[in-house]
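Q: What structure does this chain adopt?
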Amino acid sequence: MENLSRRKLIRNLCITVAALPVLAQMQMAVAADLPQLDENDPTGKALGYKHDTTKVDAAKYPKHTAEQMCKNCKLVQGEPKDWMPCQLFPGKAVNAKGWCAGYVVKA
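A:
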């Protein structure tokens, strides 16, 4: 039984690795057609999203710094451009110079 589970794991891993380049290309094609996230979007508002990182409320988000931008966040996907897809806001694009409380620095 253990070998069967290992075989399934290895097969699924191979399928996933093989599919990654295709999925990345699909994501980039879709990103061009995504609507821009509105600052008044309920999820965006809950996370303090701003199109411009310099407009973030420092009193409400004291750990925020001006260097923190969507373009250097681990959750933003694709090549750097003005508007990019973000894992926190499925189906929407965020401003590369924007920021939200979900910010995670890219390693």
